[in-house]
Design a protein that fits this description.
The complex is a heterodimer of chains A (409) and B (145).
Chain A: H1 2-16, H2 21-34, H3 39-63, H4 67-110, H5 114-131, H6 134-145, H7 150-157, H8 162-169, H9 180-194, H10 197-209, H11 217-249, H12 261-302, H13 316-334, H14 339-365, H15 368-371, H16 378-404
Helix pairs in contact in A: 1-6, 1-11, 2-9, 2-11, 2-14, 3-9, 3-10, 3-11, 3-14, 3-16, 4-5, 4-10, 4-12, 4-13, 4-14, 5-13, 6-12, 7-11, 7-12, 9-14, 9-16, 10-12, 12-13, 14-16
Chain B: H1 3-18, H2 25-54, H3 60-82, H4 91-117, H5 120-138, H6 140-143
Helix pairs in contact in B: 2-3, 2-4, 2-5, 3-4, 4-5
Classes of the chains: A mainly alpha (409), B mainly alpha (145).
Chain lengths: 409, 145
């Protein structure tokens, strides 16, 4: 019974923790402009994150070390440094976007300007990262994130033309008034949002934090293969309600305030309040994950002690990096830069950095020195290789598409 | 190249640099259409929000946030377009587009005032005015000179 509860809790937190500010904004924006014609990208992205999360989780469970703890050792300092710089830059950008997202969510709930919330959010975030136990942090925000299920309920309540929605899903092409370049740009953004590098940093490091062993691989797989696809359905429901309400009215989503509006139309104030709780949980939870991921990646590269499973005094440099990155994020957001714009760029730059993040996972998951009998099987390798090709294509296309479309305009 | 030729080239370059670019009428019209499309999006956003507030489906604060953000977005788009130098043959396009934008801004401004005051009668009036502005912007692609 205890085991079933643990598995259920893991799946629920995986669902609730799947959506972050990038998913919220990108899915709503894409739904409002392209309907569900880009839903296939979410599906491809979710399968990809499942493939690589399973690999990195298995590495953590079998070797007792996070994937990126092994990158420098296995692939040498140059590849390790390239991996660190690319992934860290994107993770830090995502961290800034998440803090901005929390501030925006609080602005929606209180009408106090987001800029005033930024220092408060950063301070509370750092205290949480410093004081709160890893398991508590993961479970609380993961479970609260389940409030976003309200989008799926709202979709049902809006009573849409299901046939019309299905037709959008099966017509992977731009809607009238949109070009193929814009379609491609947002396909890249959605893919980047689904496979954000920090997700595997956090997943593999979290496995070490929770002291996974080879016996936990089964539970980890259930979490990944059940929790992530259900989380992907949440992303799709956000896109779907935007497609139902905004697409026919030709409204483009450009602010977080717009994202819960379809929920309010369907379910009224109660639905709106639940959606706002979901926004806060999703963004604050992701801010915790990205903040820790910045610390994980640097500490693991330099071989410092890291993590919340050791007392802060023993992982002082790790906590210093987390503190500094939190402090550095504040002035960036105080420049009044639009957090939504930061989010949009962060998901596209994520796509750019993907090969450097995911290639090392595939290499290490195939190394019998670390993995013993638990090296990748044929299916994992076939999927991993296909996805690496896709990732390289997406990465190469990201910047040209950004320039051609002037950032998706 | 002789020194005299070099001076002549520099003088021409300087004169060209001082001249205000006229621009291409086709590109200017495209810019107008793009601005009107963005304005239509903002106005429809206000329309949906005010409708939701009248049906009591959204908090007053949330409605205010939405309408204010849409107003900022509309002002930004209109301000950028108005700042463009129109080609000589594009005055009609400019007049038509600025009239539509100005009407839309007025309607959204009234909506924002009504929402902040939580004045339901004024909100109903604003709802109708915003709907008219939205329809006019929606027809812009066909009707712009």
């Amino acid at each position: 019974m205890k085991h079933i509860f643990a598995v259920a809790l893991g799946v629920l937190t995986a669902i609730g923790g799947f959506v972050d500010i990038g998913d919220l904004v990108t899915n709503a924006l894409v739904g409002s402009r392209f309907g569900l014609s880009l839903a296939w990208v979410v599906v491809v992205g979710v399968v990809g994150i499942c493939v690589f999360s399973e690999m990195s989780g298995r590495v953590a469970a079998v070797s007792g070390r996070a994937t990126f703890d092994l990158v420098r050792e296995r692939l040498g300092p140059r590849v390790g440094l390239a991996n660190l710089v690319a992934s860290m830059a994107v993770t830090f950008l995502t961290f800034i976007a998440e803090i901005g997202g929390v501030a925006l969510a609080l602005e929606l709930a209180t009408s106090v300007n987001e800029v005033l919330w930024v220092p408060v959010v950063a301070a509370v975030l750092w205290i949480v990262l410093w004081r709160v136990r890893f398991k508590v942090l993961e479970n609380v925000f993961g479970l609260l994130g389940l409030a976003l299920v309200v989008f799926a309920v709202a979709l049902w309540q809006l009573n849409p033309d299901w046939g019309g929605l299905w037709q959008q899903v099966t017509s992977p092409m731009p809607t009238p008034g949109e070009g193929w370049a814009q379609y491609g740009y947002y396909a890249v953004a959605l893919f980047g949002a689904a496979l954000t590098p920090y997700e595997v940093f956090f997943f593999s490091s979290g496995g070490v934090e929770e002291r996974w062993t080879a016996k936990d691989v089964g539970t980890m797989r259930v979490n990944v293969f059940l929790g992530f696809p259900l989380g992907g359905l949440l992303s799709l429901s956000i896109a779907a309600v935007a497609a139902v309400v905004f697409l026919p009215a030709e409204v483009q989503v450009e602010a977080l305030a717009q994202v819960p509006l379809p929920v309010a139309l369907a379910l009224g104030k109660l639905g709106l309040a639940i959606a706002l709780i979901g926004f806060f949980a999703a963004t604050f939870g992701a801010a915790c994950e990205t903040g820790l991921s910045v610390g994980y990646s640097i500490a693991q590269f330099y071989g410092w002690r890291w993590g919340k499973f050791v007392p802060p005094r023993q992982a002082a440099r790790f906590h210093l990096v987390v503190l500094l990155s939190t402090v550095l994020a504040v002035p960036v957001l105080l420049t009044t830069v639009d957090p939504i714009a930061v989010t949009e760029y962060s998901v596209v730059f994520s796509a750019l950095a993907l090969p450097l993040t995911y290639l090392p996972i595939l290499v290490i998951a195939n190394d019998p020195d670390y993995m013993g009998e638990r090296v990748n099987g044929r299916l994992a390798n076939a999927l991993g290789t296909v996805y690496l090709v896709v990732i390289v294509v997406v990465s190469v296309a990201a910047i040209p598409l950004m320039i051609i479309t002037k950032g998706g305009q | 190249m002789t020194a005299r030729a070099a001076v002549a080239v520099l003088a021409v370059a300087a004169l060209v640099g001082c001249a205000t670019p006229e621009g291409d009428p086709g590109a200017y019209r495209d810019e107008a259409l793009s601005t009107l499309k963005a304005a239509h999006s903002a106005v429809e956003w206000v329309h949906i929000t005010v409708g939701a507030r009248l049906d009591d489906k959204i908090f007053a604060r949330s409605a205010d946030d939405c309408v204010s953000s849409a107003e900022d977005s509309l002002s930004g788009a209109a301000g950028t377009f108005v700042g463009l130098q129109p080609p000589r043959s594009s005055d009609e396009v400019r007049d038509a587009a600025t009239k539509l934008l100005s009407d839309a801004q007025d309607a959204v401004e009234d909506a924002r005032i009504a929402v902040r005051r939580d004045d339901r009668a004024a909100m109903r009036q604003a709802y109708t005015a915003v709907a008219h502005a939205s329809q006019a912007l929606g027809r812009a692609a066909e009707e712009l000179p």
